[in-house]
Write a structure and sequence with these properties.
mainly alpha; MetI-like fold; 3 domains; two-stranded antiparallel sheet; flat
């Protein structure tokens, strides 16, 4: 908090919010459990213990009562999770003076953020005034009142629906059919959440990209050969208009990914073939866990390995052969990234190859084929769809990697196909553009969303190509 402030607000205010949310979930769970017990009991009592007269089993009546009582409360709770902060912010902003109302959207957001930080005794970007203290206190009280309203509403609705559901139980009630319908609706809602989340992500990328295209033309972004997003604060400063040509970033991403796959695909696939077709049980029990251990190493450790061991080794080897190699190179990043994705390719390919029916192997051997011929002509073609999926997943993992590139390849946006030079990737630039205090109205910050959308489209195209390959070579086995 600012040094001039002696006003204190409870530091554990956010904690109390989460504790209240947890308490609400526990209360809703208790109401649902009570509804289950009462619903089951009433169903049994309605037929005087002869459950053969019931349309469904007693448990079906209990679960129906529990679900119908739980869903309204959970719906209110989800509304609070999604829209609670927006409601509080709107109320607080509406209570502020006209000076705050006349500020730009970005300045209001900064002011509101200072109010929130002051409410939890955190650092703010301006001196603390009496008006700011009052706004923070008003935010705390508003949050408590809104949370109380949502809590009482959720508990009231759940209690009411629990009472009505238990009261409506009769021997002829088709509780099993209704319960199955509720389960299907719940599954559809869960699926819809996943779909809506994807739509929301894509929509946010598209909207912010359109704002970016108001500053930079699409042709410059897609066809430009220079990437220098640094912009000045004033128009009279040097470099007031940055360069936003993304070709060097895409070229660097594809170069490092190609090097990683060129190293990881043969090693991963051959190791999977050895594990499934040649290794005995003892060797497999030793080598497979050791290989998959690589998947548990943090990427920052791979970055240190690339920066401190692989890159100096490559540079010293280049000096021996008279080659000029940069201290940070695409080759170092690609090799270490390839090591990182080997377990992914090996494990997935192992599972796919192991799933090929033994009858195909026996038939090949019966026709006189050798083990190598069986692997090349029978097993690999049979497992090709799964192997292609493993390669695609590994490529996506390599494209999205950031830490190894930062530490081993640098952040220089060089347009080159030379793996011995320093390059950067799309993900590294996205992180750099969104790190620190940024103004989200500038072309520099908005370019991160344009890069994200372009990366999404590239990944989508890779998935489409892989799907076509899988459908072309996929075979059915009994």
């Amino acid at each position: 908090m600012h040094a001039g402030s002696a006003f204190y607000f409870p530091k554990d205010e956010p904690k109390s919010k989460y504790m209240s949310s947890l308490s609400l979930i526990l209360i809703l769970g208790f109401i649902a459990a009570a509804s289950y017990v009462m619903g089951r009991k009433k169903a049994v009592l309605s037929v005087r213990g002869d459950i053969r007269q019931l349309h469904s089993l007693p448990n079906h009546y209990g679960w129906l009562s529990a679900m119908t009582s739980l869903l309204p409360g959970l719906l209110v709770f989800m509304v609070w999770i999604v829209f609670g902060n927006s409601i509080i912010n709107s109320i607080v902003l509406g209570a502020l003076g006209e000076e705050i109302q006349n500020l730009s959207h970005f300045e209001r957001a900064i002011y509101l953020n200072d109010i929130r930080n002051l409410a939890i005794n955190d650092a703010i970007s301006r001196p603390v005034t009496d008006e700011l203290r009052q706004a923070a206190q008003y935010l705390i009280s508003t949050r408590r009142n809104i949370l109380l309203i949502f809590t009482l509403t959720a508990i009231g609705l759940s209690s009411l629906t629990a009472f009505l559901s238990v009261r409506s139980i009769t021997p002829d009630l088709k509780s099993r059919n209704m319960l199955e319908y509720l389960i299907v609706v719940s599954l559809v809602i869960c699926s819809a959440i996943a779909i809506l989340t994807t739509i929301g992500i894509v929509s946010s990328l598209v909207l912010e990209t359109l704002r970016f295209l108001d500053h930079v033309s699409l042709s410059e972004f897609l066809l430009g050969l220079k990437w220098s997003p640094q912009t000045a604060l004033r128009a009279d400063q040097v470099g007031s208009s940055g360069s936003f040509g993304a070709i060097p970033l895409f070229a660097g991403t594809l170069l490092i990914t190609f090097i990683a796959l060129l190293f990881a695909v043969p090693v991963g696939l051959l190791s999977a073939i050895y594990m499934t077709e040649f290794a005995n049980r003892k060797a497999r029990a030793v080598f497979k866990p050791l290989l998959e251990l690589l998947a548990g190493i943090p990427t920052v450790v791979y970055g240190f390995f690339a920066a401190l061991i692989v890159a100096p080794t490559i540079r010293s080897s280049g000096d021996f052969f008279g080659l000029e190699i940069a201290s940070e190179s695409a080759l170092a990043a690609g090799l270490v990234m390839g090591i990182m994705i080997i377990p992914l390719i090996s494990s997935l390919s192992d599972d796919v190859i192991s799933s090929v029916p033994q009858s195909l192997r026996d038939a090949s051997y019966g026709l006189g084929a050798t083990k190598t011929e069986t692997i090349l002509n029978v097993i690999i073609p049979s497992a090709l769809p799964g192997i292609v999926s493993a390669f695609l997943l590994a490529a996506s993992r390599a494209i999205g990697e950031t830490m190894i590139v930062v530490m081993a390849a640098g952040m220089a946006a060089n347009l080159t196909a030379n793996p011995l030079q320093a390059v950067t990737t799309v993900t590294v630039q996205i992180v750099a553009l969104l790190t620190g205090d940024q103004e989200f109205d500038s072309a520099k910050t908005l370019s991160a969303f344009a890069l994200g959308l372009a990366l999404f489209i590239i990944t989508l195209l890779l998935n489409f190509i892989a799907l076509r390959v899988v459908r072309k070579y996929q075979e059915q086995y009994d």
